[in-house]
Amino acid sequence: MLQTVRRLCKTLFITDSRGVRRNRRFARAVEAAEVRLLLSSHALTVVADGTVADRDLDGQSDVALTSDTNITNRWFNLSGIGQERGVFEFDLSQFTPGSTVLSAKIGLYVTSFTSGVTNGPQLVFRVSAGDGAVTLSDGDVAGVAAGTGTVGTTGYKEFNLSAAALQSLAGGMASVRMQNSALDGHWVSVASSEDTLHTAPTLILEIGPPTLNLSITPDTISEDGTQSATGTLSRTGDISQALTVSLSTSDTSETSLPSTVTFAAGASSVEFSITAVDDALIDGSQAVTISASAQTLGGPAFGADTTFGTNGIATTRLATNIQGPNAAMAVQADGKILAASEAGSGSWRITRHNANGSSDTSFGTDGMTTTTLGSNFPVPYRIVVQANGKILVGGKYAGGIGSAVLTRYNANGTIDTSFGNSGIADLGNAGGWIEDIAVRPDGRILLAIAFNGTSWFRVAGLTSSGQFDSNFGIKTYTSINELARSIELLDDGKFILAGGNAVARFTATGALDTTYGTNGVTRIELPSPKITDVFDAKLDALGRLSLGIYVWQMVG
Predict the structure, then answer these.
(1) Global model pTM greater than 0.90
(2) For labelling, which of 16, 289, 347, 379 has a CA lying 20 to 30 Å from the CA of 272?
(3) Domains of the chain, start order
(4) DSSP 3-state assignment of 378?
(5) Beta bridge partners of 341
């Protein structure tokens, strides 16, 4: 959303070299900002975290642990000394000093806490200036009281913090300390940034609309062109992005200046020159107004969209007994939302919701359709809506070593009996299960097939009616030796296949395109012992490829 920031005016005195003083004032007059703003929300991931503890019970911290996957709060001694405290460092340098912080929260993933406590551990948060590292002093610095919270369940939880306390630290580093509020034996542990399985500690700030300030020095210049004034613009708010400001003068016959000036990313101020136009006329005192205004892209709305479903959540009748939380979903061109899950040992089900989260009762039976597929635990992995509105759902028979299953539905949720064998494709020779689906412009289908113990990087081609495409067949690329998880079509008929640490490009017939990467393959290598696994790939309008990658490492 566009934000209109404050429009500023300033007046300048200009003296005529012929001895007549001509007053062109750029008197400062600030107009109110236009109120059509989307306030900018920012989720900042912790840059350093750890546990600081007083283990020798002398009242001062003596241990700082910064490499554990958990950060723990507890008392060692009920006499009032010997506490472990969690410390979280956040970088606020993208916001200028003086930026308005309207609200602040810290998001933490609670991994465990004292069991049997009615209300759970009581926490206190204190904020102080940080330095980007967790040290012993972070455990003892007084800081500013910034909020409290109660832990009653495990999982991700957000705690309100003092906006004023964080606002004073804009432009620098902020240290947030978590400690037990009560002197008791209760404890709580939260996931640190070292824990790759859970959400890292996050600081969520809502920043007020950006503002511009304009000054002009000197406020008197000569019309004969021997002098010029310097305009200085400064800005508040998020300065992480470049900002172009439009400049104008109320009288182009009297003054000259650039039409725009641009703040570089990270810059809080920028200068420009103003010169008087020598018109060779003695025309008395003049008032010339210089104006500056800009529009910026507002930050994305953050948090649940409360207009969707009930407070941002739409209830479904799906089940996830086998598959993880990455259930198959797709959004239709009309905004309706499809989701699928298993439905017992021999079926899967698909639901459709309207764009507002309500159940689309025109789909299937009361918004849901269930398909019996055999007693081998079918699990849907991917949904693709074809250009004609028909719906492909592909996935895995989870029993045994895993095999492929693909169905197609009409737009109203009924099974498309013209596809495959009464709506179900015969994929017995695929040699693995379906991770992704792509539909070519002519209706032919490509399937990314995952490894099931016998076949590696593999793609299968089907006709538009769900039969194996004899002109393409099943391609196995044993030299790549990775799991094929995502497939993307290119405009020229080529396609991208990605998975594991490999991204490969192929011709329309399935041959490796050796003009891409190294012999057709690009490898994504992170420093050992980290291991990468590409789970998804998407092309943008410029043909650039974005990858969704899971990164993990072996421990022990």
Answers:
(1) no
(2) 16
(3) 2-36+209-297 (2.60.40), 42-207 (2.60.120.260), 329-520 (2.120.10.30)
(4) strand
(5) 349
